[in-house]
Amino acid sequence: MGEGGGFQLGTVGALSLSVVSSVSIVICNKALMSSLGFIFATTLTSWHLLVTFCSLHVALLMKLFEHKPFDRKAVLGFGVLNGISIGLLNLSLGFNSVGFYQMTKLAIIPCTVFLETVFLVKKFSRSIQLSLTILLLGVGIATVTDLQLNLLGSVLSLLAVVTTCIAQIMTNTIQKKFKVSSTQLLYQSAPYQALTLFISGPFLDGLLTNQNVFAFNYTPQVIIFIVLSCLISVSVNFSTFLVIGKTSPVTYQVLGHLKTCLVLAFGYVLLHDPFSWRNIFGILVAIVGMVVYSYFCTIEGQQKAREASSHVLQMSQVKDDESDPLIRAETGAGINDDGAAQTAQAWSSNKDLHA
């Protein structure tokens, strides 16, 4: 009971940290890009990852977590793939309309479900599928406005969806396979992600904005917001790995759509962004889908826990049943025949040695 409660508490904490940090960094980056004109998203992300690595290195020196090296090829492939997926998502946004980009983000959930079903033989119940459909419908109503298609943008979106799904599935799989924590995985993969984006970032940003990130006028106000964005990103990156490790890639995507709805609502209430009843209705439908998804996940998790507990109990009973005849034989032998008792004790001792 205590272990299950601790796991649930840790999961709730991870989800809460992810929501708060993600909404905070969106607000900070919106001020940085919209108000101050710093629109170099990919380069900024590389700085985020570099600061995250430096922060984790300081935490390691302070012995706040233990460094656990594992398969270097897996870390390298994972880090580079994560960096590529971020770059492709930024390119998708640059070469597509906002509406089509939102459709790209919506496609990540069904793609993840498909990949996990085919390659990891993971089963999703009809209840989970229904709740995900409701969620995606709500987010689609709230965020998708226009669907202007073009060949290059569509190819970039497809690549962005596939690489993002694989990267998030790898996050969950690597943590379980090598038994590393989210902090340990992030610490080892962050340099490769940062290097990938640091090399490609200025080129991608120049391609999308027709501006040079190194020629930008870095005023004190811009520098303050960049530093603030990088500091918040430490929490964002850590919570991302934490949520995927404790739950699943699909749950992380569900949480991401909740954050999208929260950002929309925040922009309407505090920043007076344009809003309509369509947005409100879509957000409400998405929240219903998220609640239903959380409910069915909890129910199925409890059911699996009961089945696992029942299986352990059955195994324990089988072992007890197997030992009962031996106990009776030893007892009877002790009463009737000392030689037979010694034989039974020797057999019992030999069984224990081979167990």
From TrEMBL:
Keywords: Membrane, Transmembrane, Transmembrane helix
Superkingdom classification of source: Eukaryota
Keyword set includes Transmembrane helix: yes
Its membrane topology: Multi-pass membrane protein
InterPro entries noted in UniProt: EmrE-like, Sugar_P_trans_dom, TPT_transporter
Gene Ontology cellular component annotations, sorted alphabetically: membrane
Domain Sugar phosphate transporter: 21-294
Record carries keyword Transmembrane helix: yes
Location(s) in or outside the cell: Membrane
Segments passing through the bilayer: 12-32, 38-62, 74-93, 99-121, 128-145, 151-173, 185-203, 223-244, 251-271, 277-296
Listed name of the protein: Sugar phosphate transporter domain-containing protein
